Amino acid sequence: MGDQIDVSSTSTQLQNTLIQYHNIPDDEWSVAKKSSDVTVWRKPSEEFGGCLYKVEGVVKEVTNRIVDFIRPGPYRLQWDSLMTEMEIVKDLHQGCCVMRYTTAGQLLNIISPREFVDFSYTTVYEDGLLTCGVSVEHEIVKPHCVRGFNHPCGWFCVPLSDTPEHSFLTGYIQTDLRGMLPQGTVDLAMAGSLVNFYSDLRKALQKT
After folding, report:
1. CA distances from 131 to 69, 96, 135, 169 (A)
2. Closest to 145 measured CA to CA, from 105, 86, 192
3. How confident is the model over 142-163, as pLDDT tens digits?
4. Residue 9: which residues within 8 A CB-CB, separation 6 or more?
5. Contact 59, 205 (CB under 8 A)
6. Residue 13 to residues 9, 20, 42, 79, 81, Cα–Cα distance (Å)
7. Please, is 165 exposed, middle or buried when counting C-beta atoms within 10 Å of its C-beta (0-12, 13-18, 19+)?
């Protein structure tokens, strides 16, 4: 499966798609959820019938360390409360890999656990980093799990110009959870999980 991926073209296309999302004008987004230090927006996705979510917030840490905690690797499973299992299925060259992971049930298990198999790519972006991914086909499905599908997703992490030991983290997520789920339920779960993502990440970075 990993051998069938054209790493160069897939990573380039993925990066270009995320940069397009990053340049979407502000007036095309509507606020989905707002906390004191994180804001989540959404707009209709052009990839599938659901939504593209954008989330932004400041994280008090240098860019490289934040991305080390987000991208596939030893840190992610330790702190992300939504992720229950993760494995690197195949290491590829040029900062790429294929990862398989499962997510916990949400909203009192109205949304049951999901499994994803994603191509992941991390690269330099401006003064910071971009780590991004997209689901790929994989024949083995974990029992008792619905296989979800991530359309192009990613995280831009750049240092703040006035306080470079702090970083501005912007995420773009568009996940097809599949199964018969009302869009309102998906919106509630996605917005809440993205705010929690920042909370979990900040706590993990402070601990270590």
Report:
1. 11, 10, 14, 11
2. 105
3. 667 889 999 999 999 999 999 9
4. none
5. yes
6. 6, 11, 22, 30, 30
7. exposed
